[in-house]
């Protein structure tokens, strides 16, 4: 294995290389030990929260935008302090314990059942979009050593029922619109005996930061509430609202019951690409370690004046760890107004200093900002293009992101469209195109870092650190995390490959989960011994000690000629084509070639396709729709030929190039066709089923 010591960014642990495994990589600050040099007293999420409450009680903590019924608009952000949130949280946690005990005593429970409840460490479901109460509930449960089970709709219509039953959840905290759904499915989730509504049951207390068009009843309907209460009573389900639980907790005077590091903090269900969701068991140590590690790995100092916009779903590890990190910072968290279409408006209203997103959203920022700059017609667009080119050139020369002339003329204005205070964007879940990344850095005058992690690693693992420009890597290990690669002989990825070691990414540290709930087989597949987790992702270690994700192990399949195919590797090449938005590549074990389903990018594809047809057939295409253009054979065959050229240029083998394609005008998504996971990964087997007839048709055409 070759490293360039002059530019080495990771620490290579001496004599750690073994047969089939690369040397172990660490953060350069972790040469002597993986123990944290700072904040070592934060061993649980309870510690994380209550330390910030003690040290910054009057700091603004959680904010939302109330909806004004008269103007039909969202108002400016309103915040509550750390101290006020802590009072609500501890009362809520005590109230949850009290109503569970009351229910058990009322129903004639055994002494053992009551003792088990008093011993804590039992689950409570949270079924809500991001809002301040989500965070308060989470921290309230921590005060009583209870753990959250995250419920959400995007896993599928019946997935929440599976999660409730699989996790043995008896109590669900949810928004008003979820109650009818829970009551309707009560016969299929018989363990649920208590529902706590986050929205108050009294009109005078009713406020929401969620889009009223998405709430049932909207925004408040006392008659509907009474119907729900009556319905729940008939089903022998206790129904409370948030304020009632707080008051019960206040009156109960139940003291804090702090968790130990080894106690469960949360049960997150990964969407997965096949089968039922897997319950990731994560402890307080896992997530406290993740929050501190994120703080230590940021690459520049943030402080308690920092502000973060919450929109990443809290049922996901990425969203949870990011918010816990902000609590370590004693910073502000403002919640989005419930609709991703209003994210830019929310950002402008909140003026955050820090934003964590995914490439899909950052691509939207790119579209908005390029429309106002480099894509403008005439002289104005020409000036903007010159400014962007000059700033990107300076950026890659190491001259930083600031440019007095161009910032004053152009980029202070583009930055203000998102947030004038923005200092850093973090992105994960998928690669961000370098051209998009460079443009956003110079137009928003901020740092952008990419990272790689998993739910099973509490959303910490590998991240770009310090001020440098990415060359397509995802960075170096977080503080407290070790990384190595292991051989995947069936894919011909070996740690002995030259010049760069390649193999499956494995990680180790206090952030690594304890296993999958009630699934020893899958736990054994993931936890491979000595504290290591095998990720299922393929990476290479670069000359400078950074790590680049290059492939996915779990999606490989064998073709008729005996070669193994990694469709994700091919898809990652295809989606870099300017005309392609999404790609799905597949094959069959009885066939010797691949086919694909391609979703073109309408912004670039429509004008290109119209121009192509006009130039080749002299047809007026002005009225041609997107749907009409994707069905055109000339368009399809021209794009297929272009794809072949690009695939060969990037070094793909002949058997890795698709020989036929279907152009799809409907994007892959979570809800409509259900072939993406909530983290926007392709559910490959669902896609195969969804496009089964089309795949057969593509093979029949070629035959």
Please give a handful of descriptors for the protein shown.
Luciferase, domain 3; alpha/beta; Rossmann fold; five-stranded mixed sheet; 31 strands; 703 residues; GMP Synthetase, Chain A, domain 3; 36% helix
Describe this structure in words.
It is a single chain. With 703 residues, the chain is of the alpha/beta class. Among the domains are: 1-33 and 477-554, Luciferase, Domain 3 (Luciferase, domain 3), CATH 2.30.38.10; 45-52 and 75-282, 3-Layer(aba) Sandwich (Rossmann fold), CATH 3.40.50; 562-702, ANL, C-terminal domain (GMP Synthetase, Chain A, domain 3), CATH 3.30.300. An eight-stranded mixed sheet has the order 11-10-9-7-8-12-13-23, sandwiched between helices. Helix 2 runs antiparallel to helix 3 (111-118) and helix 2 crosses helix 4. The longest helix is centred in the N-terminal third of the chain and has 25 residues, at 82-106. The two termini are 45 Å apart. The relative contact order is 0.10. Residues 210-219 have low confidence and may be disordered.
